[in-house]
Amino acid sequence: MADNPFLSPDFLINWSAHTAEHIEPAIKQALADGQVAIDAIAGLPLDQLTYANTFLALEDTTESLTFAWSKVTHLQAVADSPDLRAAHNAVLTEVSGFYARIPLNADLWARLKAVAESDEGKAQTGIHRRFVDETVSDFVESGADLPAAQKKRLEEIQGELAKITQKYSENVLDATNAWSVVIEDESRLAGIPEHALETARKSAIEKGNGTAEKPAWRFTLQMPSQEPVMVYAADESLRQEMWKAATAVGSADDHDNRPLVPQILALRDEEAKLLGKAHFADQVLGRRMAGSGEHALSFVNDLQSKAQEAFQRECGELEQFKAAQTGEPAGKLKAWEVGFWAEKQRRALHNFDDEVLRSYLPMNRVINGLFELAQRVFGLKIKERDANAEEVWHEEVKFYEMHDGDDRHVGSFYADWHPRESKRGGAWMGALITGGPRSDGSRAPHLGYIMGNMTPPADGKPALLTHREVETIFHEFGHLLHHLLGEVEIKSLNGTNVAWDFVELPSQIMENWCWERESLDLFARHHETGGSIPEDIFGKMIGARNFRSANAMIRQIQFGKMDLLMHTHTSEFVAAGEAGLEARVTAAVAETFIPTKPPARPIIYRFGHLFSDPTGYAAGYYSYKWAEVLEADAFGRFKAEGLFNRQTGADFVRHVLSRGNSADPAELFRAFRGRDPDANALLIRSGLVPAA
Fold first, then answer.
1. pLDDT tens-digit profile of 413-439?
2. At 379, which CATH number?
3. Angle (nearest 5°) at CA 464 between 459 and 469
4. pLDDT of residue 1
5. Cα-Cα end-to-end distance for the chain
6. How far is CA 375 from CA 188, 267, 521, 645, in A?
7. Do residues 326 and 450 both lie within one domain?
8. Which residues pair with 219 in a beta bridge?
9. Mind spelling out the 3-state secondary structure of 574-641?
10. 638, 146, 612: which is closest to 377 by C-alpha?
11. What does the pLDDT look like over 457-500, one tens digit per residue?
12. Is 60 exceeded by the pLDDT of residue 88?
C-alpha cells in the first residue's frame, strides 16, 4: 500500500497518479488504520489516561483517511468520470459509517469523559480547554450517551444520507450536462453579447456542430452560458426554452430528485429526534451563533419584514416599465422575462451596461490585482509555481505559494476557474491539508484550492469576467485566506472549521474591495489599453449597485426561509409527499417570489447547498445573510481607517483569519470591531434604510 498515491502524505500531489483503481484499496486501508488507532485509545487502561493519549491522540487517528478522502471527493467534483464515480460510491457508505461510529464508541467515550472530568482535564487552558469542551460537545450531540440500539440507527441514518445526498448531487450535475441547445439561425442571437457568442461558437465546434464557414452556437446550463441568454437574448422563445430546462434540473427523467428530497428530510428529522432535539434545525444550530432554529427563523423573518415593502415596489416598477416600453397593459411578467426586462430597466435608469465592465476585467489582471491587494492589506506574497502536467488535474489549473511578511511559507493552493462537463457547477473553496503550528515550535504549511465556473477565454481573447464573477473570485479567496492563515495548533479547530454562520465573514468581506475606486484600480484594467475604468462608468456602476437590491435580498431570504421551514416543520413537508412537496414549499414562502406567469418554482430539486451532503448548509443557508450583517459592519472599520491600512489588515488576521474556532465567534468579532455588530450596516449599504 505504500505506493498507493491516495495514501501518500506528500504535500506536492501527483494528481495524474490518482486514478480510480487506487481509490477502494486506499480508503479501505486508511479506514482499517484509523480503526486500529481508535481501538488503541478505547482500550487504554483507565489508570493510564492522559490528555495527550486520549484527546490529542484522537486528533491524529483520522489524518490519513481525511487526506485520502479529501483527494477522492475533490477529484469527483472537478474531474468526474464513470470509473471515478463508481469507485467513490463503492466506499462512500463505509467512510460515512466510520466517522459516524467514532462518537458512538462507548469505550472511547468513557475514556474521553474520564479525562475531561479529571484534574488534568479541568486544568486545561486556552485552545486546549476549547478543544476539550468542543470535543465533549461533539460527542454528546452525536449521540455518545444514547442506548446501543439508537446508536446503531444513527449510524444507519448517516450511511443512508450519504448515499442519497450523493445521488442528489450526481443528478444535478448529470441533468445540467444533459441539456444543450444548438442555434444555427443567427437571427435568434440578437442581443446576446459577443463574448458569449464566441464561447457558444467554440462549444458548438467542440461538439461537432458548425464550422468556421458555417457557424453554429451551442448554449448550455452552465452559468457563463445560461446567464447571457436569460438577460440579453431578444428571442423570447430561446429564453423560454432555457428557463424550462434550467427549472427542470433535478426534477425530470433519469435525473429526478423529487423522491429523494422527502427521504433526506425524513432521515434528518429522525436523526434529530434520536438526539433529543425538536427538529434538525435545532440539532444543527445549537452551537452556532444563531443558537436555534427559532432564532435563525426570527432573524430571516425580521430581514424580510424590512425588505418586503421595497421588494413589492421594485416588482411593481418592473411591471410598469415593461408596460411603458411595449404599450401593453401592466401585469405579471413571464418567468423568463424578469432578467431581460430588469436589465433594460437598469440601463434606462442608470445608463449602465454591466457588459461594458468585461473589457476592464480580464482574469489575469483580476488575479494579479487580488494578489496585490492581499499584499497591501495583509502583507502576503503570492507567486505562481511552475507545475508539471502530472501535478494538476487539468491543464487550466494554476498552483501558487503564499508567504507572509516574514517570508514564511504559510500555504499553497490550486485555482481552477472555468467550467467543464466533468466539473460540478458553482464556486467553492476546499482544504486538502491543514497545517499550522506544531508542538515542537515549527509550523506546517496549509494546502487548499479555490474553484469556479467563470467565463472562459474565447476567440483569442483572455477570459473577460462579469463584475459578479470577480466578486465570486474575491469571495472564495476570502475562504482560502481563512484556511491558509490559520494559526491554531489543534487542526480540527483551525482555519474554516468554525460555526457556519461565521464562516462566511472572511469570504463576504473580501467582496467589498470590488466596489471601491482605490482597490478597483489595482485590477480593473482594460485588456487592450491597460486603462482603468473611466470615472463616468464607475459612477454609473456605483449608482446601479443597489438597483433591485430588495429583490436580491428577498431571493436569499427565500432560500434561507424555505431551508429553515423544511428543517423545523419537517413533518408537514414530508407528509406532502413527492407529489405535493413543491407546492407546499411554494406556499410556505409565497411572499418571496416575484409574481410571474407561470409562477416561479422553488429550487429544492437542484439546491446542492441543502441536499448534496448529509448536512452541508442544511438549516444553515441563512448564514449567508447573517455573515453579511457581520461583514458589512466589519468592513466599516476598513472604510474608516483605510482600505489598505496594514494595521487594520493585521488586526483582521490576528482576531479573525488566524483564530479558527479557538474562541466564540462573537468574541472574535468584538475583538476586531471593538463592539457587537450593528445590524443596520447591511440595510444601509443595500439602500433599504437611510444612513444615520
1. 999 999 999 999 999 999 999 999 988
2. 1.10.1370.40
3. 140
4. 52
5. 65
6. 47, 47, 15, 11
7. no
8. 181
9. HHCHHHHHHHHHHHHCHHHCCCEECCCCCCCCCCHHHHCCCCCCCCCCCHHHHHHHHHHHHHHHHHHH
10. 638
11. 987 889 999 999 999 999 999 999 999 999 999 999 999 999 98
12. yes
Given a contact cutoff of 8 angstroms between Cβ atoms, the answer to whether 476 and 385 are in contact is no
Confidence grade of residue 692 (pLDDT, cut at 50, 70, 90): low
Residues with active-site annotation: 476
Q: Cell triple for residue 419?
A: 467550467
- Give the Cα separation of 288 and 285 in Å (integer): 5
Residues 197 and 278 in one domain: no
Contacts for 433-441: CB closer than 8 Å, 24+ residues apart: 433/11, 433/67, 434/483, 434/486, 434/491, 434/494, 434/495, 435/411, 435/486, 436/486, 436/487, 436/488, 436/489, 436/491, 436/494, 436/495, 437/487, 437/488, 437/489, 438/489, 439/489
Domain end call among 223, 248, 273: 248
Q: Rounded to whole angstroms, how far apart are CA atoms 497 and 487?
A: 12
The predicted structure's pLDDT at residue 290: 95
Asked if 183 and 216 count as a contact pair (C-beta separation under 8 A), the reply is yes
Q: Report d(CA 419, CA 451) in Å as an integer.
A: 9
Is the domain of 532 the same as that of 661? yes
Phi-psi region of 642 (alpha: psi -120 to 50; beta: other; left: phi over 0): left
666-675 LR contacts (CB < 8 Å, sep 24+): 666/289, 668/502, 669/502, 669/505, 669/630, 669/634, 672/634, 672/637, 673/633, 673/634, 673/637
Longest dimension (CA), the chain: 86
CB atoms near residue 552 (< 10 Å): 15
Which SS3 state, helix, strand or coil, does residue 341 take? helix
Q: Is residue 669 part of a domain?
A: yes
CB-based contacts of 417, cutoff 8 Å, min separation 6: 363, 396, 451, 452, 453, 454, 463, 473
Per the prediction, the chain carries an average pLDDT of: 96
